[in-house]
Amino acid sequence: MLKWSEFGRTADIILAVWPYYRPLHERWFMQELVDKGENTPVWRDRLVPGENDTVRSEHYPDRETAISAAKLLNPSLAAALSARVMDPLAKRSIELKVEKALQAKQRLQDEEALMLREALRRHGDDKRLDASELKLATASEPYRLDLAEQLTIMPYLKVAKVGRSNNRWSHTLLFLGHDGIWSKPYHAGEKGALTAERAKIANGFDLSAVSHWGKTKAQIRQILLPRANQLLQLASVQRLLAEAMARGERVLVSNGIVFWYEPDGGVGWQVKATSSTRDSEGATIWNEGTILSTNHGRLVVLPYIKDSGEQIRGHTKNGPNDGRALPRHRDHFVEIPFSIYDGDLMIGLFGELPYE
């Protein structure tokens, strides 16, 4: 058995930590960002000392507890990096890489939480079948109650991870066939459990859980834009935007959605989507930067910082199939500062809308 006192990792420099969900184990496991010198830092599963000099993984039962633990530890790790005696430019480069890595992790989780919230809302009025009404393959009978409980919450599911049978747990996948019959059970490994977890979001938008996940989420973002436009009618959102105007803010960003104030033509507040260039994908957002809008494009590329430290100004554009964005007259070019809001803001705002 591996002993912590003999563990080779203890001398590694840890730059940050952040949790991620492993559906197979139904727990949040902590990862740590490890300094690799001149190379880009890498994420790995975090191991910590256990009882009697043992080594164990660091994990938590829920997202809130895991994130709280990460936010408690990260400031001390950042302070340790700040105190290191090294070339100032090299230190700043590492700090930017840490910011980029943490931003990417948190943006991903916030976005998927928003998508799940909206998937559940869209099917709030769907008919719920009683457990006895479900059609299952004979071999799946032991999972009837487990499946029924999940479908009560997510009636749209087409893939489900089940496991309760005679008070014992295993890891099994069931698939809904075109004939309305749930399949025989299939063993669920890490990949299968992840597919079932993604189905909680994808199936809620009538999309497949086995398709390319990045492309599936891009489709969902487009589906969500009309929904986001409805937010402008909410009194609470109107108050939020009025307060932003009073502070001189004209662009508010949260979870891929942009509230954008357009002064020309009496347009006022409208909703755009964030986009990225190949270079900016997952890059560190430059919070002090500005967006120079030379056209009326529907997408906003936020200003970002390259690993080299070069600051790239934000801009507006159209998507690949939108045609050329209508240009602004040079006298009407707009250079706007922006504010990023916590991802929970959009989740909360979406939750305020009544069922339709």
Q: Which characteristics define this entry?
A:
about 350 residues, alpha+beta, 4-stranded antiparallel sheet, 7 helices, flat
Q: Treating each run of at least 4 consecutive H or I residues as one helix, how many helices? A: 7
Q: Give the biggest sheet.
A: 8 strands, mixed
**Share of helical residues:** 25-40%
- Alpha-beta classification: alpha+beta
Assembly context of the chains: single chain
| Mean pLDDT across every amino acid position | 83
Give the N-terminus to C-terminus distance in angstroms.
57 Å
Strand order of the largest sheet: 19-14-18-15-12-11-10-20
H and E string = EEEEEEHHHEEEHHHEEEEEEEEEEEH
- Per DSSP, what share of the residues sits in E-state strands of 2 or more residues? 25-35%
Radius of gyration (Å): 24 Å
Q: How many beta-strand segments?
A: 20
Low-confidence stretches: 278-282
Shape: flat
Topology:
Blueprint (H helix, E strand, L loop, with lengths): L13 E9 L4 E10 L2 E7 L1 E3 L5 E3 L1 E2 L2 H21 L4 H35 L21 H10 L5 E7 L2 E8 L10 E2 L2 H13 L10 H18 L4 H12 L4 E4 L2 E6 L5 E8 L8 E2 L4 E4 L5 E3 L2 E2 L5 E2 L1 E4 L16 E4 L1 E2 L2 H10 L4
Helix pairs in contact: 2-7
Structure description:
By secondary structure, the protein is an alpha+beta fold. Helices cover 33% and strands 26% of the residues. The chain is built from seven helices and 20 strands. It has helices spanning 63-83, 88-122, 144-153, 190-202, 213-230, 235-246, 343-352, and strands at 14-22, 27-36, 39-45, 47-49, 55-57, 59-60, 159-165, 168-175, 186-187, 251-254, 257-262, 268-275, 284-285, 290-293, 299-301, 304-305, 311-312, 314-317, 334-337, 339-340. Strands 19-14-18-15-12-11-10-20 form an eight-stranded mixed sheet. Strands 1, 2, 3 and 6 form a four-stranded antiparallel sheet that branches. Strand 2 (27-36) and strand 3 (39-45) form a beta hairpin. Helix 2 (88-122) runs parallel beside helix 7. The chain starts with 13 loop residues before the first strand and ends with a helix.
